[in-house]
Amino acid sequence: MMPTMSDEVLLSRMEKGINNPLLPAGGAGKEDEAFTIVRLPSHIHETNKGLYEPRLVSIGPYHISSASTRAMQVHKWRFLRDFLLRGDHHRDGAEGRRLARLAVYIREVRKVEARARRCYGEPLDQLGSDDFVQMLVLDGCFILEFMLKYDAAVLDAYMQWVWIYIYYDLLLVENQLPFFVLAKLFSLSMGTVDAAVDRRRLLRLIFKFFSLHDPPGQDPAPGQFTVIYHLLHLQHQRMVMAPERPKLGRSARLTRQMSATVSRIFSSIRARMIGMATTTPLAIPCATALMELGVTFRENASPAGQFDVTFQDGTIVIPRQAINAGTRILMANVFALEQTKDWKEGVVTGYVVLMNALVSTAADVALLRRHGIFDNMLSSDDDAAAFFNRLGDCALFDPKTHRYARLFKDTNEYCDSRWNRYVGLFKRDHLRSPCSIINLLVAAMLLGVSVLSAGYTICRYRHGCS
Questions:
Q1: What distance in Å separates the CA atoms of residue 72 and residue 58, rounded to the nearest whole number?
Q2: Is residue 59 a contact partner of residue 37, using CB atoms and an 8 Å limit?
Q3: Which sequence spans correspond to the domains of the chain?
Q4: pTM of the full predicted structure?
Q5: Which residues lie across from 37 on neighbouring strands?
Q6: Using one digit for the tens of pLDDT, what is the confidence trace for 208-227?
Q7: Sign, Cα dihedral of 203, 55, 178, 106
């Protein structure tokens, strides 16, 4: 039998756990900032290898000792030196001014050290106060200087070669700095006193840098980003947030509400007429199976956003999506970000659930390619299908309330109609291509000629008999 400790010793040990500095506490920052930069579970790493580890540059504490990012450390120091001398055109006394600025950065960042530590999902005991503050200053200044050089098109030859790797390394869920640290360093470098102006300027700089993945349509206004945890969180908001629109008038709101009410009533009546004895399934068949059941697919040429997917009269309308190495990294990491925070209401989570349902094999990818929905730039359609399936395997979601649950329900109700199924089969077999349409017309013409010929023969026979 294992020896037991006294109540006093056990109480003391548990008190240390309760007083862990990692736990949020009032007065040291907003509690909703806690645990916004976390490590992903090992099964997600194993299922999607290579999509969550930095290839070239480590940002933050999680990959600071990674062998693949060690060579970039010297370039971080080089960019820090350039950042400290930004806007300084006088050689005399440059060294002193550089050290004075660095001292200011260290002092100001140390003030938010406790708040920054609380953003990470681990105690980070291996990093003392000096090491942690050095990491924040070095990594933060590197990010800002890299974006500023990119904006001014003055990156050196080496950085022009590797910039695309750095681009995607800055969008990894485990490779982040708290945004307020970046904002503080940027404001200090600008030397202005208007934090709101500096913030708008910083957001414009970031938007321009991440322009490879600008959302379709109008970008949300900077004023819409009220809370930003880090760069990936900002990019996630750009992807899922709809741009501000003029408020509808009273009559327009009433019209929209009446239309939605009428639609729900007709939907309910139709469901009763179909006579469904069981509950509508919570899943939908894959794309090729849906085509067999009469559902078609069409590209959404002018979407309100990247995830503006709708079901309209038997057609699933989806915005065009490029699938390449970069979009795989971005999609996997914004999905992982939602899974760590808001998976029940996650827009990207819902999209992953939808694509995992539609795409089962390479044949489904090929079908969606033919309908202008996918631009597959991977080596094969099998790779694209495997990507969505692996993400879907890691998805936590509520099948009754996810973003596209209504679309799933409408699709299943449409497929339950025999008439829709017969019409779909007719379109599939006879209206798929110009050749099949011509064959149908020729067959119809021959049938018509045969009917007329038979009618003529009958009439002639009856006329001869009379």
A1: 8
A2: no
A3: 27-178, 278-427, 434-465
A4: 0.83
A5: 120
A6: 999 888 777 666 777 788 89
A7: negative
